[in-house]
Design brief:
Elements lengths: L10 H9 L3 H7 L19 E5 L5 E4 L3 E2 L7 E2 L8 E6 L6 E6 L5 E6 L9 E4 L4 E5 L22
Antiparallel strand pairs: 1-2, 1-9, 3-4, 4-8, 5-6, 6-7, 7-8
């Protein structure tokens, strides 16, 4: 069980959360789009920290689980907490894939594939615009105003 409040945002909270999204963020997060490969801001990010949902701020992936998949999108072998990721069967474009969404707000993040490295053998392939980043020593975002553990400072190590 997650130590974060996974209660979905109310309609009013959702309106506030999506108000500052760019057109591209709206297209990807809310309309299940995909950003172009090899252009996302987090593709080559090497900083230590946590990747969070751009919409609601829920921690999604640790930098320690990031790897270079060569696909053009940030890729991770394991989520921050499995409870933070929703998995949905996606049969669009003539393919059968597993879409991953934020378990709290439902925003589209990307897809997960069974070709990642050990120990999970999963490749969570994310859109950079679906993410925000909190560096080590910085406070996690509290976009929903729910207090700790959102707002806590990420410890070194």
């Amino acid at each position: 069980m997650s130590r974060f409040d996974l209660t979905p945002p109310s309609d009013a909270q959702r309106e506030t959360l999506v108000a500052d999204l760019s057109d591209e963020e709206r297209r990807v997060l809310l309309q299940h789009g995909t950003e172009a490969p090899f252009c996302g801001i987090f593709l080559d990010n090497k900083r230590e920290g946590v990747y969070t949902c751009r919409t609601c701020g829920l921690p999604l992936f640790r930098s320690s689980a990031k790897f270079d998949s060569g696909t053009g999108w940030p890729s991770f072998f394991a989520p921050f907490d499995e409870a933070h990721i929703g998995r949905i069967r996606d049969s669009s474009y003539g393919m059968i894939r597993t879409e991953i969404v934020c378990a709290r707000c439902g925003s589209h993040l990307g897809h997960v594939f069974p070709d990642g490295p050990p120990p999970s053998h999963e490749r969570h392939c994310l859109n950079s615009v679906s993410l925000a980043f909190t560096g080590e020593g910085e406070a996690l975002p509290d976009r929903m105003g729910r207090g700790a553990p959102e707002g806590e400072v990420l410890a070194a190590g």
